[in-house]
Amino acid sequence: MTDAHVNPVNPDSGQDDLPEQMRVRREKRDRLLAEGVQPYPISVPRTHLLKDLRAKYDAQELEPDTRTGEQVSVAGRVIFLRNTGKLCFVRLREGDGTELQVMFSLSDLGAEGLARFKQLVDIGDLLSVQGEVITSRRGELSVQATGWQMAAKTLRPLPNEHRPLNEEARVRLRYVDLIVRPEAREMVRNKAAVLKSLRATFDAHDFIEVETPVLQLTNGGAAARPFSTHLNAFDQEMKLRIALELDLKRAMIGGVDRVFEIGRTFRNEGLDSTHAAEFSMIEAYEAYGDYDTMAELFAELMRNAGRAIGRTTITARDGSDIDLEQPFRHATLFGLVSEAVGETVDVTTDVAALTKLAEQHDVELQPGWNAGEIAVELFEKLVEHTLIQPTFVRDYPESARPLAKPHREIPGLVEAWDLIVNGVELGTAYSELNDPVIQRERLVAQSLLAAAGDPEAMELDEDFLRAMEFGMPPAGGMGMGLDRLVMLFTGAGIRETILFPLLRPE
């Protein structure tokens, strides 16, 4: 039985028939109360899960009209109801999506009992049912009901195939979307499976999971516009974190050599199909690692997560297949830009030459950008969207990654990569800068930009610099957008992957 049987209407206060349907359902609630029956009892009988009965009896391939003799009490939401005649049929669904048919007959409930069932039960109600496990004449596993109780009376009707939830309502009324659409329920479970796999992979490599503060005094760890708030207890202006980096590095300095966090971060920027104001990030830091060890770890995290939900081969936006089991490509940022513009560009190419290339390829630039910023903009506008197969784009200009370590061979570059898959950035990693003197210079430069009005520039974090002065080991660090990883596996937009995304008020 599918969700096409769900009935009746879209829960939208603009529907003319909604007030009537709600009035009828409220009257049924009132009748239960008048009978001395709670429409929302503290508990109801439940001896078996529907999935357990399915697992036990589906494997036995019972003949039609089989009576097992097993008495059970099950519970679930009514998603299908046919309540005419002497034999009524209900389909119950559990939270995991398992469904089971229940049969209410005149012979088992009596005339008064069957009439009461017909008068009180609607699609959407949560019921507890007692009876014997049987198979119907058509061979369908069922419970032949001898009794039932209301677990929770539903006062609003559900959507149906004639009046389904539109795309906006699916997000705004996510709880209804979960009831009626298996894809929404699958998304929740897939994301949970991905999280479980990620944690297992980190654990296999002896990483320790920690939690760090959401409220921050300064804006650091990324280039993004923060949310601001006020802590009344300290009479102190605070910010919601835009990244997890600085506190995780403090932990590593303290001796937590392999540390990671999966946490919510907040960026007060634009919203679109790949960006949300509140989202989940994963960051990890490995003492005595570098950006190469992080690339190996990142690829393993992705492959294991894909295996966990059976999606190591993904259909790309151009219709091709992305096979995560294959080795990931490595390429340099300047090498890719050179291919795109048809001439050699490297870290020594000056602002004038890069500006001319931007004009030739219709890439808009901001006044005052340095050569590194222009090179990154050329990459993002000309190359990034073309990278379908997983590609580690390596070796960024120093000005673009102020928290990364200078390149071991090429002056002016830092050891950093972004992983691009299906034309979208999925994560980043550095050989982490651990010289506190150079780190101070770069953060001072960033703080001057912030003071000049750049809302995305990092501020000077004296406590972080003090921690670095106690000695931070050479390390590799990585960050991954959890929601973007799930988007890659499922092909959904970011609003679909976040259970309850931020929306404009109705």
Automatic annotation (TrEMBL):
E.C. number: 6.1.1.6
Aminoacyl-transfer RNA synthetases class-II family profile domain mapped to chain residues: 194-505
Binding site for Mg(2+) 2: E425
Keyword check for Translocase: no
Superkingdom, natural source: Bacteria
GO CC, alphabetical: cytosol
CDD domains reported in the protein's UniProt record: LysRS_N
Protein family (similarity comment): Belongs to the class-II aminoacyl-tRNA synthetase family.
Subunit field text: Homodimer.
The protein's name in its UniProt record: Lysine--tRNA ligase
